[in-house]
Task: inverse folding
């Protein structure tokens, strides 16, 4: 897939309270020990966490951590995106994650100047040239709002042709979904790295809710095992570690250009997988 050095990254969401902010500082300190290539910070539906995202990004940057803020089409306009780009350029941030974003309830789909992530990528390139390394999203199991798999693949190819440097996938548990998607993207002319997203398993009800919303299939055998553990969180975590470490080992053995961990602002589940994989510190 790629002969380039592998890229490992950890994703956070901006904290909503002082207590949560303190916990995130402790989490990022623990994860920083393994020296990931970057930390990303998400953007809430409709840009609802914009201020929290910017504050979290700038605080992490001041602490010397490599950070990649998310940018979202939904709830944004050219002026607001231009201001964010200027803010990040002024402090020396060099990586972004450009997304269409989610619509909050009550917001009309046409209420943004950017309809698709490809529009946002084009705008960032026009404003900043090659200053930023731009990541975009990929969906190995098809975006839940796409009418067909072919349409979804076409949307992904447009984002890459618009100027994206690499992509991060939605998490998945079907080990065949990722190499199949990468092969299809390559046949469509995409040669840039596509890094698989990894979701540590710690809470089944939360995982099922997220997965149903984002279109990530939980195989029936996994659902039945997780349901069988009931409220036994230790067993859920142990099973989740085995499943995810095995999936990550397979992905890396197949040539995946790295891993992107959806940490849920927790250090231990990601570090447990990292340790099981025997990944070295920088």
Result:
């Amino acid at each position: 897939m790629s002969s380039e050095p592998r890229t490992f990254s950890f994703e956070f969401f901006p904290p909503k309270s002082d207590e949560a902010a303190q916990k995130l500082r402790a989490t990022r300190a623990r994860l920083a020990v393994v020296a990931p290539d970057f930390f990303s910070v998400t953007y809430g539906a409709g840009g609802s966490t914009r201020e929290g995202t910017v504050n979290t990004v700038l605080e992490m940057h001041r602490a010397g951590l490599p950070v990649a803020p998310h940018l979202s089409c939904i709830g944004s306009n050219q002026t607001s995106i231009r201001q964010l780009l200027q803010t990040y350029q002024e402090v020396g941030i060099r990586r972004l994650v450009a997304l269409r974003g989610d619509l909050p309830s009550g917001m009309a789909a046409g209420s943004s100047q950017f309809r698709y992530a490809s529009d946002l990528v084009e705008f960032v390139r026009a404003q900043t040239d090659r200053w930023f390394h731009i990541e975009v999203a990929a969906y190995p199991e098809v975006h839940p709002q796409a009418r067909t798999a072919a349409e979804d693949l076409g949307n992904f190819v447009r984002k890459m042709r618009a100027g994206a440097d690499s992509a991060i996938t939605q998490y998945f548990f079907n080990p065949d979904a990722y190499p199949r998607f990468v092969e299809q993207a390559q046949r469509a002319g995409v040669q840039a790295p596509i890094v698989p997203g990894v979701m540590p398993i710690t809470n089944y009800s939360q995982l099922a809710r997220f997965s149903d919303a984002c279109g990530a299939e939980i195989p029936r055998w996994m659902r039945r095992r997780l349901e069988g553990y009931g409220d036994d969180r230790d067993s859920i975590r142990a099973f989740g570690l085995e499943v995810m470490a095995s999936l990550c080992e397979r992905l890396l053995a197949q040539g995946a250009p790295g891993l992107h961990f959806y940490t849920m602002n927790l250090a231990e589940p990601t570090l447990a997988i990292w340790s099981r994989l025997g990944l070295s510190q920088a």
Summary: The domain at 7-277 is CATH 3.20.20.220 (TIM Barrel).
